[in-house]
Amino acid sequence: MALAGRPGPRPHHPYSQDSAEPPAPRGPGEPAAPSSAARSRQSAHPPEDDVDLEALVSDMSASLESLYAACSMQSDTTPLRQNGQHSRDQPPPSGAKPAPPQASPQQKVQRSQPVHILAARRLQEEDQQFKTSSLPAIPNPFPELCGTESPPALTSGSLPPSQATATQDVRVFSEDGTCKVVETPVDMTARDLCQLLAHRSHCVDDNSWALVEHHLHLGLERCLEDHELVVQVQTTMASESKFLFRKNYAKYEFFKNPANFFPEQMVTWCQQSNGGQTQLLQNFLNSSSCPEIQGFLHVKEMGRKSWKKLYLCLRRSGLYCSTKGSSKEPRHLQLLADLEDGSVFSLISGRKQYSAPTDFGFCIKPNKVLHESKELRLLCAEDEQSRTCWMTAFRLLKYGMLLYQSYRVPQQRKASLSPFSTPVRSVSENSLVAMDFSGQTGRVIDNPAEAQSAALEEGHAWRKRSTRMNALGSQSPLHPSNLSAVIHRTQHWFHGRITREESHRIIKQQGLVDGLFLLRDSQSNPKAFVLTLCHHQKIKNFQILPCEDDGQVFFSLDDGNTKFSDLIQLVDFYQLNKGVLPCKLKHHCVRVAL
């Protein structure tokens, strides 16, 4: 007879023999109790045909919850637990009944086991790599810091040479011999360094400061262009050379008055050009045009002390000399110097050091020359205007538009500012206003002419009060005679006891422009002074003589026709009026201490 719960009686095989024992007889009211063998068979072989749907749904829900918990913990696999239960990712063996869902949270806590840390870290790294896989790959700038065998410190060779030496120390000297060491970046230009030095020296930056490359052993010097890199120029200088910080008013003067720098007889064109003096600079700046500077110059022969007068021609391709008179045929032209390979310098003492025939010498120095003067191309002009023309043309043909852009930078900056915010002399003076306190209440004087007349009246009234106090026997330190004798020594334009040659040298160094001047003590008359003025690239001297009127000492330039109580009044007057001078006083020579 078949057991309850079986699908049906098993067909009997003729050669098979049933090994199961017959069930024991039971009473009429007792339930059938299975034997121990039957119980063991039931525990080893669970029923396969009956499917419990509720248990299957609960098992699937428990599996999904465990999978969601595993994903939130960034873990996919769990090792075999200590109680013998398989992990989630391993399927149970065939025929095994799924475990029922846990009944209470306490049972969950009892059955949970710690997860290995190494596996969790590996999964976190994989997850982070998956998140950043869509981003572009960025190379590691410091791979040597990631290795365990290398120390986490930067060595001297770990950085590129360009980054390891980003700055260099540059020594800059002033006219009085003082020196300042500036830590200069490799990309700092000469204009930037001049602005920095002017700011540190508390000077007004009027875009006329320049950095001068000075070679004392060679007797050469030149002003650096504003766009040149200071550190790069320093590499072409010898140890005896140095940088000087001084004024140069003639740096871009040829853009304002080109006719004074390029005489018509010295400028020619290789091809037909319709430009006159008005379009002279445009032709120089245009790379397609072919301007030429021509004329006779004294040329020093290489390796010899003798000088020879030759006909020279300056073009964009270089400096040429004619081997046959003034002929410019290609077969008669010989290349003397290349523009790209060198720079143009002026001779400091050409007569003494190189036996130059005149004082207007200049030189084309190759960049590779440091100490030797044999490879220098020494030239000498007849006058200052010819030398200035040759040197200015050399700069224009070599740099071109870079010079014009450097010239336009301060002009554009000045145009962007309002006329009320542009300082005339200094920032402090720009914040002052003229006031009138003659009435009961003060008022601001808006009219410039009225403000100037009020200032003059105040100055005369102050001098009258000083004279009246002196007549009464006052011992005031502001005695007019003492004040007029020393007040000019506090001004930048007064240079004290210097010689005539020294004053001319200072004027030449700071630019031969119209109106450049200085005042000094007279060597011939101890009570007189001398005004040194530049006009049309020529230096002239005017003596300032003292004169007495009613017991008071005055100073005059025109034999007493125009009198001034001190030199400050004299300078202020001739800055506004030309008078007996060929031009007004415009720029004053100044020396600063770094």
TrEMBL record:
<dbReference type="InterPro" id="IPR000980">
    <property type="entry name" value="SH2"/>
</dbReference>
<dbReference type="GO" id="GO:0005158">
    <property type="term" value="F:insulin receptor binding"/>
</dbReference>
<feature type="region of interest" description="Disordered">
    <location>
        <begin position="1"/>
        <end position="113"/>
    </location>
</feature>
<dbReference type="InterPro" id="IPR035037">
    <property type="entry name" value="Grb10_SH2"/>
</dbReference>
<dbReference type="InterPro" id="IPR029071">
    <property type="entry name" value="Ubiquitin-like_domsf"/>
</dbReference>
<feature type="domain" description="Ras-associating">
    <location>
        <begin position="166"/>
        <end position="250"/>
    </location>
</feature>
<keyword id="KW-0597">Phosphoprotein</keyword>
<feature type="domain" description="SH2">
    <location>
        <begin position="493"/>
        <end position="589"/>
    </location>
</feature>
<dbReference type="GO" id="GO:0046627">
    <property type="term" value="P:negative regulation of insulin receptor signaling pathway"/>
</dbReference>
<dbReference type="InterPro" id="IPR001849">
    <property type="entry name" value="PH_domain"/>
</dbReference>
<dbReference type="InterPro" id="IPR039665">
    <property type="entry name" value="PH_APBB1IP"/>
</dbReference>
<feature type="compositionally biased region" description="Polar residues">
    <location>
        <begin position="153"/>
        <end position="166"/>
    </location>
</feature>
<feature type="domain" description="PH">
    <location>
        <begin position="290"/>
        <end position="399"/>
    </location>
</feature>
<dbReference type="GO" id="GO:0005737">
    <property type="term" value="C:cytoplasm"/>
</dbReference>
<keyword id="KW-0963">Cytoplasm</keyword>
<dbReference type="Pfam" id="PF21989">
    <property type="entry name" value="RA_2"/>
</dbReference>
<dbReference type="InterPro" id="IPR015042">
    <property type="entry name" value="BPS-dom"/>
</dbReference>
<dbReference type="GO" id="GO:0008286">
    <property type="term" value="P:insulin receptor signaling pathway"/>
</dbReference>
<feature type="compositionally biased region" description="Low complexity">
    <location>
        <begin position="29"/>
        <end position="45"/>
    </location>
</feature>
<keyword id="KW-0675">Receptor</keyword>
<dbReference type="InterPro" id="IPR011993">
    <property type="entry name" value="PH-like_dom_sf"/>
</dbReference>
<dbReference type="Pfam" id="PF00169">
    <property type="entry name" value="PH"/>
</dbReference>
<dbReference type="Pfam" id="PF08947">
    <property type="entry name" value="BPS"/>
</dbReference>
<keyword id="KW-0727">SH2 domain</keyword>
<dbReference type="InterPro" id="IPR036860">
    <property type="entry name" value="SH2_dom_sf"/>
</dbReference>
<dbReference type="GO" id="GO:0030178">
    <property type="term" value="P:negative regulation of Wnt signaling pathway"/>
</dbReference>
<dbReference type="Pfam" id="PF00017">
    <property type="entry name" value="SH2"/>
</dbReference>
<protein>
    <submittedName>
        <fullName>Growth factor receptor-bound protein 10 isoform X3</fullName>
    </submittedName>
</protein>
<feature type="compositionally biased region" description="Pro residues">
    <location>
        <begin position="90"/>
        <end position="103"/>
    </location>
</feature>
<feature type="compositionally biased region" description="Polar residues">
    <location>
        <begin position="72"/>
        <end position="85"/>
    </location>
</feature>
<comment type="similarity">
    <text>Belongs to the GRB7/10/14 family.</text>
</comment>
<dbReference type="InterPro" id="IPR039664">
    <property type="entry name" value="GRB/APBB1IP"/>
</dbReference>
<feature type="region of interest" description="Disordered">
    <location>
        <begin position="126"/>
        <end position="166"/>
    </location>
</feature>
<dbReference type="InterPro" id="IPR000159">
    <property type="entry name" value="RA_dom"/>
</dbReference>
